[in-house]
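User: Hey, quick favor. My workstation is busy. Could you predict this chain's structure for me?
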Amino acid sequence: MPARVPFLLACLLLVGGAGFARDLPLPPGEKLVHRERSAYQTLLVTDGITRRCLRFTEGSEGLNQSCRPHATPDHLAFDYTRAMTAVLLLWKPPPRRVLVIGVGGGSIPTALALVRPEMAVDAVDIDEAVLRVAQRYFGLKPGPRLRLHAADGRDFVAKARAAGTRYDAVLLDAFDAQGIPAPLFSEAFLRDVKEILAPDGVFMANTFADAGAYGRESRTAEAVFGPFHNVRLGTAGGNRVLVAAKSPAMLASREALMAALPSQGAALARLGIEQRWVRELRFAGRDWDITSRASGT
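Assistant: No problem, here it is.
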């Protein structure tokens, strides 16, 4: 999800119900396609000149959570989705089973189904209405290899751990207005995530690079996974993608990831990801305050 986008997954239940929300103005040039109030939030689908977007905030100040270009619907619209998908495609060995926590418009699951149809993907979102909207308006198509789950992300991971289920990759993309809800980035939760990773598995999270929680999230991830890649998108603020391996010894170097680019060029191109863009991703290193404690709850 793009920077500063409210998204509720495994956090406090908002009071609400079925029915339509009040009519607030849309940004210029956009028309309303669908509005619905779920148990968690108001979902808006809008069409602009170049793309269709999903947002969870009403009015002209609402920020887009997911977008799909009209002319190139297979192309990923946001930098963070391109970065997460590119790293996943470049990872060795190639992931075969993937868990995505936080679906939104379904950009990443849809992209993986397009270029890696043999991959098994479980896509989890706490809001069943989000899953319905993603299917109806954004081309998300469940099937035998792409399964959708209306569930709390924490509960889903805890049940997977109890059942001994293993994933080659876990992608976390879940926000409230301030960033990732603390329960979804606690040591306890991340240790559950680590437990369900295969020995050579990878964990990725989309986080805010300029949020107050940046240091806490970094320290918590380091406490659980050890060293990780801190991929910054933009020179200031914006998003960062955290890339960690179950074992620090299995964390692919930047050079190793880039060496796999030529072999994945066709798949990346189908999603609108240029190899040159991937090579320019900024691996920022350990740039957070290390004096405070990580979150253990």
